[in-house]
Amino acid sequence: MNIVYIAVSLDGYIAGPDGDIKWLNTIPNENNSDHGFGEFIDSIDGIVMGRKTYEKVLEFNEWPYDKPVYVLTNTLDILSVELKNKAKIVSGKLKDILKDLNSRGLENLYIDGGVTIQSFLKEDLIDEMIISYVSLILGEGIPLFGEIKNQLNFKCEKIEYISPYLVKHWYKRVR
């Protein structure tokens, strides 16, 4: 199962024009809650992300994942030495990459990053999406969906009101 878990502005952006995600820290969060992200991470077997998302995660104080991470890239040759046993480069056709990861027992994959999510959607490889809508308009930036040529039907299975600033939706692909 390939799952998207992401926050998006009301106007459909997941990051500012330069990939900035600091706007996520403007959401009032008195309890410093992760809003279910930790529970989600516990439910997955691995993470597939694009190069730009990988580079953004490297800016964090520490590597946040204890699950194996696979970085989709055709431009990087090596990853940070500190992440030798935590992240690997993968490239090629998405279906082949998924077949390889699934054969290693990685069945539930978190798909992360704008271009990566769009690529998976274009090939109809997303099974579920958990989208947290943030009550703000960025005006410009990196869109969640971009241009997807074919209609993909999803059904909303659950909506969780977290706060006046954040509402989480669970969508499942209808095939």
Automatic annotation (TrEMBL):
InterPro entries: DHFR-like_dom_sf (IPR024072), RibDG_C (IPR002734), Riboflavin_Biosynth_HTPR (IPR050765). Pfam families: RibD_C. One of its GO terms (biological process) is riboflavin biosynthetic process. GO terms for molecular function: 5-amino-6-(5-phosphoribosylamino)uracil reductase activity. Residues 3-165 form the Bacterial bifunctional deaminase-reductase C-terminal domain. It comes from the Archaea. This is Bifunctional deaminase-reductase domain protein.
